[in-house]
Amino acid sequence: MIAQLVRFVLGPLARALYRPEVHGVENVPATGPVLLAANHRAALDTGVITFTTPRQVKFLGKAEYFVGKGLKGKALAGFLGGLGYVPVERGNAQAGLAALEAARKVLDAGGVFAIYPEGTRSLDGRLHRGHTGVAALALATGAKVVPVALTGTEKLQPGGAKIPRLAKISITFGKPLDFSRYEGQDYAPAIRRSVTDEVMYAILEISGQEYVDTYHKRPSEGVA
């Protein structure tokens, strides 16, 4: 019920208020497993993807967001579930495997899952080297990979503003990528790296960002 509220009530309201430019939405396959691979500019990227994709989209979410007590905790859990978040435990040795397994279940069921291959938000506006989880999922499930480019979303909450501001934002869905030619080779590190790099190049082509062939580091790791 909450998912329907988010999708069919909040979605149209958000689109009417912020008027995002949406390009290439016809590139999202109408049926079958689809992996949306997006650049990551802001915390609100997930909402933009949710409200502009014609099919329901699932994302990974921290499990602790779903266990809050009282009315407020239940409301938050319900809202995040409505946005498409799938709760996953983090901060332990099995976290990465749990995340991939949660995503794989969605794709195996023929659903749509969104992932940020960079692994974190870009703090310098550039597109950074992708982690190979996107390739592992695509190769293991046979899902089509649709590259997604978000532009301007970093202006929605500048300086950590609590209320999103009006800003010109756009989302572009690129042509779907098919990696069925690598069937049976999903455990080969070289293949995973090659597929990931192909996905990142596709994102680069539609985003127009500068590309950096290194993993993005958070400020605490020495990057301003």
TrEMBL record:
GO process annotations (BP): phosphatidic acid biosynthetic process
Record has Nucleotide-binding as a keyword: no
SUPFAM superfamilies per the UniProt record, alphabetical: Glycerol-3-phosphate (1)-acyltransferase (SSF69593)
Protein keywords: Acyltransferase, Transferase
CDD domains: LPLAT_AGPAT-like
Gene Ontology MF term list: 1-acylglycerol-3-phosphate O-acyltransferase activity
Any Pfam family matching the protein: Acyltransferase
Tree of life domain: Bacteria
Domain Phospholipid/glycerol acyltransferase: 34-153
Matching InterPro entries: Plipid/glycerol_acylTrfase
GO (cellular component) term, any one: plasma membrane
SMART domains: PlsC
Keyword match Transit peptide: no
Protein name: 1-acyl-sn-glycerol-3-phosphate acyltransferase
